[in-house]
Amino acid sequence: MKVAIVGVSGAVGQEFLRVLDERDFPVDELVLFGSSRSAGRVYVFRGKQCTVKELKHNDDFKGIDVAFVSAGGSTSVEFAETITQHGTVMIDNSSAFRMDADVPLVVPEVNPEDALDRPRGIIANPNCSTIQMVVALKPLEDISHIRRIHVSTYQASSGAGASAMAELVKQYEEILKGEEPTIEKFAYQLAYNVIPHIDVFTDNGYTKEELKMHNETRKIMHSDVEVSATCVRVPVIRSHSEATWIETERPISVDEARKAFSNAEGIILQDDPSKKEYPMPLFVAGQDPVYVGRIRSDIANPNGLTFWTVSDQIKKGAALNAVQIAEYLIKVKNI
Ligand SMILES: NC(=O)c1ccc[n+]([C@@H]2O[C@H](COP(=O)([O-])OP(=O)(O)OC[C@H]3O[C@@H](n4cnc5c(N)ncnc54)[C@H](OP(=O)(O)O)[C@@H]3O)[C@@H](O)[C@H]2O)c1
Predict the structure, then answer these.
(1) Mean pLDDT, rounded, for 35-49
(2) 2-126+318-331 is classed in which CATH architecture?
(3) Domain 130-313, CATH among 3.30.360.10, 3.30.830.10, 3.30.565.10, 3.90.226.10
(4) Would you give the distance in Å from CA 300 to the centre of its chain?
(5) Smallest Cα–Cα separation from 69: which of 81, 58, 37?
């Protein structure tokens, strides 16, 4: 396969290099792209040096089978035609095309076949918070239809990119030295704080990040489920956590849920309160699966179940999910 990574210098772009190598993805040739800021930089992939090319409107994508794109929404919109015009499959990490009717939104554990119908040659990777939630919801939906979801997220600083991750570390250093912390990437100081504000506010009081969890979940699961989310930035470097309450058509017992999670693809059950076993971002960072724990029947709702998930949002929430989509296309001989 001839593979491209667009936005290779970023948090997700760097993860693509690791994930492609780790999973033995069949790369015959790798072409790296960035803006003029990172053009010329050299990265090593499987012992070979690759120089970053500046992304431009030309024929650089001719012959490339798949492009993993993580350079922000405006870049995706501007370059989609350039990337796909010669038949390259564009797997896009931005939110630019996710809700477009002619762009499939895919999580391989949930709706892999949707990736086969891509009239524009674009497949969208969902929002990182949505990905881990739908992976956990799928085995429960298979037992009883999920009618309603309330979810509260605890999102790591790296969710806002490599420079946001660096800003959190810098803030702790500055505060320890008695200096004023630098605040550029977040609305407030994140060190020693939590910020209930991710992406911009909309007219109904929810943020765009929160509405993504509603809209994207329905599209991926082909479901009429209602999702009410509160998305919160927390001073964690890597891996998002989520507290989720679901209401199903018939009650799902804790035992049924544990069994379903244990047998599900992409999930590790970590749920033994007597041994203080539950997932935490510190230990999940760098791992592939979605970890699930703290499973309880909801005492406030007879048809309710509540649980806690943690997953590395740069890995399963971005690069790994995209690579798994490409692996699925290779498996079914679609690319
Ligand atoms: N971080 C996460 O956890 C996460 C999870 C899921 C999805 N995403 C999405 O993935 C995308 C990238 O996020 P990130 O966290 O990796 O951001 P990031 O660390 O800020 O990196 C942004 C990347 O985009 C490149 N870029 C920006 N403008 C460009 C242009 N005009 N042409 C070519 N490359 C350009 C940058 O290259 P230069 O160095 O050359 O500027 C850099 O490589 C975003 O759409 C984000 O929403 C991120």
Answers:
(1) 98
(2) 3-Layer(aba) Sandwich (3.40)
(3) 3.30.360.10
(4) 30
(5) 81
166 ligand 1 Cβ < 6 A:
no
Say how far apart CA 322 and CA 114 lie, in whole Å: 14
128 is catalytic: yes
Mean pLDDT (whole number) for 306-321: 98
Q: Is ligand 1 within 6 A of the CB of residue 162?
A: yes
Q: Is the CB of 12 under 6 A from ligand 1?
A: yes
Catalytically annotated residue among 50, 57, 128, 150:
128
For the chain, the structural domain boundaries read 2-126+318-331, 130-313
Digit-coded pLDDT (tens) for 82-116: 999 999 999 999 999 999 999 999 999 999 999 99
pTM of the model: 0.98
222 is catalytic: no
Which atom of ligand 1 lies closest to the CA of 52? 40
Residue 194 has a CB neighbour count (10 Å cut-off) of 14
pLDDT of residue 326: 98
* pLDDT, position 222: 98
Tokens coding 279: 């997932």
